[in-house]
Amino acid sequence: MPWLYGWTGGEGIMRKNKLLTAYAVLVFAFLVIPLVIITITAFGGGSAITFPIESFSFKWFANVFALKSFRRSFLTSLEVALLATLIALLVGIPAAYALARSKVKGKQMLKSIFLSPTIVPGIVIGFILYQFLILTLRIPVFVSLLAGHFMVTLPYVIRVVGSSMEQFDFSIEEAAWSLGCPKQAAFFKVVLPNVTSGISSAFMLAFINSFNNIPVSMFLSGPGVSTFPSTLMNYIEYNYDPTVSAVSVLLMAATVIIMVVIDRTLGIAALAK
């Protein structure tokens, strides 16, 4: 009977929707529950990380700001990540533009060369740069660290900005040329405004990867120059108190604040384009 088949099909769709909903809830729980546990343990009053917590306290957040090594390494990571990302943008945007505009042979090979640092393990890059920059050329540690992070961030800039460039209709730029606009002015007034979402996404992705980088930073650190993730790893080796959880909560809060600022200025939807 037709009505019976229709009812059976509708029941099957409802069952499928329930399964998809349950699956989505499980994935969401898998992602959120560890964050909730870390947040709760950050407020524990005990001397070790425990869940559930024995008592409530803010002392571990105060301990984060009291440790001089944390404050100094955080500022170092912030400085290195910001400088490396800005330099990567200055180099990567013209490179992405050239790759998108050119039709020469070997274009794919050039892209592979630019993206090679993401393929090679970070520990290999760190060791090579340590041998070449610090031991051979005797370059200062901070400059070597900045060069290493530049190599880490550049592929992300070229990949993300390059994708935006490839979606851009260059006939608009050529129309600006035909109307008498100089090529350099057309690049800044026509091309760049149309790929700002890609540039913003590249900045965020490169900055976060640079700030969180450990393999390259461990090789290129030295006396008085250490990044925040490396300092945190050294702290965990000798201490297992809720300070680590407090640091994680502060970093998550900072990330949320940055994303809110970006959403208010550019819009998350713009970054997804």
What does this protein structure show overall?
The protein is mostly helical and 273 residues long. It has one domain: MetI-like fold. 80% of the residues lie in helices and 0% in strands. It has helices spanning 2-41, 59-66, 68-101, 107-119, 122-136, 141-167, 170-178, 183-194, 196-212, 215-219, 228-238, 243-265, 268-271. The longest helix has 40 residues, at 2-41. Mean pLDDT is 79; it is low at 267-273.
> What is the count of β-strands?
0
Number of domains: 1
Number of helices: 13
**What name does CATH use for the topology?**
MetI-like fold
Topology:
Layout lengths: L1 H40 L17 H8 L1 H34 L5 H13 L2 H15 L4 H27 L2 H9 L4 H12 L1 H17 L2 H5 L8 H11 L4 H23 L2 H4 L2
Helix pairs in contact: 1-12, 2-12, 3-6, 3-9, 3-11, 4-6, 5-6, 6-9, 7-8
Main features:
globular, mainly alpha, 273 residues, single chain, 13 helices, MetI-like fold
Structure in a nutshell:
80% of the residues lie in helices and 0% in strands. The protein has 273 residues and is mainly alpha-helical. It has a single domain, classed as MetI-like (MetI-like fold).
